[in-house]
Design goal:
This protein is α/β, with parallel strands linked by helices. The protein contains 12 helices and 10 strands. α4 crosses α5.
Length: 319
């Protein structure tokens, strides 16, 4: 999720008064991490970190001014018109966007080209840190060789390819045919060129939305996709993804807090190419309830933030 630099530069992104380590039972008091830091993942026995400190950095006058400005905007009307243009709902808008202008934009962000602006480069860094965290979570307990992984919403293959390099058997999918084609191209280039020894198994790429996924996998991963689903639909998607996983489900989502929700609403006042789809934030408690309803519990959790990117990361296991 990206916001205007002029807004984000005035309000600190980190509200964590404590950081919890997976190997300790007591919280460790520490200084707030700098932008782009990855707070360590914590065991799920700890309590969620509140965001009350954000209230102290926004004055009452600022809130009143923003509220007045927000009352003049109608982002939902703009989104509704977009849906009508493509003849469908949110999912149709997302598919249309990521097959056209959105594909070109996010291909650059997920790629290595220098033809990106400051915001895009920062989002690239944030997403890369999310992928790095996931890879650490998946490899810390042993080799991935032969482990089956479903990469739901694979984009251009930024997670699928590292998984395949580690020996995992990857089934990758995305709602965008353009994204899937790019991911397959990148996988063929990176997994066949200059490899020594055994050649990794290429991921199986398919054009599918989350609802259409089937099969059983040791691990299911869904990164930065729930942002396209309102909570009532996200609940169903979380339950569906959990039904595909045997041992582990890893999700990342834009967290819904007072502060992040305010930034999102302000960002909607300045629509542009990057705001071509609805963006839904999700409270961690709501995601946890959806997992519990599906018979799963959160085992680890973390928060990845840069200046323009933020994502809550959770690992769930059968309860």
């Amino acid at each position: 999720m990206a916001f205007s630099a002029s807004l984000s530069s005035h309000i600190p992104f980190h509200t964590n008064p404590t950081i919890l380590s997976p190997k300790r039972t007591k919280p460790i008091k520490t200084m707030l991490p700098p932008p782009a830091a990855i707070p360590p993942l914590s065991t799920a026995t700890t309590t969620s970190i509140p965001d009350f400190s954000t209230l102290a950095v926004i004055s009452g006058g600022s809130i009143a001014a923003l509220a007045a400005l927000l009352s003049l905007a109608d982002p939902e009307r703009r989104r509704r018109l977009q849906a009508e243009e493509v003849g469908g709902g949110d999912k149709d808008v997302v598919r249309e966007y990521f097959n056209n202008s959105g594909f070109q934009r996010w291909k650059k962000i997920y790629g290595e080209t220098d033809d990106v602006n400051k915001v895009q480069r920062d989002i690239r860094l944030g997403h890369a840190k999310t992928v790095e965290n996931v890879m650490n979570m998946l490899t810390e307990e042993g080799s991935l060789r032969g482990v089956t992984v479903c990469d739901a919403g694979c984009g251009t293959g930024s997670l699928s390819i590292p998984l395949a390099k580690e020996g995992a058997i990857v089934s990758a999918s995305d709602i965008s045919a353009a994204m899937v084609a790019e991911a397959k191209k990148q996988a063929e280039e990176q997994l066949s060129a200059g490899n020594e020894g055994e050649t990794p198994v290429l991921p199986k790429f398919e054009v599918k939305d989350l609802e259409s996924l089937d099969g059983k996998y040791d691990t299911v991963v869904c990164l930065d996709v729930l942002i396209h689903y309102p909570q009532n639909k996200a609940d169903g998607m979380i339950g569906h993804l959990a039904s595909l996983a045997e041992k582990r489900l890893i999700l990342s989502f834009a967290p819904k807090t007072f502060y992040y929700d305010l930034l999102k609403r302000v960002g909607e006042l300045f629509p542009g190419p990057s705001k071509a789809t609805r963006a839904y934030l999700h409270a961690e408690a709501d995601v946890e309830r959806a997992l519990q309803k599906a018979g799963w519990k959160i085992n680890k959790r973390g928060l990845i933030t840069t200046q323009f990117y933020f994502a809550r990361l959770v690992e769930a296991v059968p309860a």
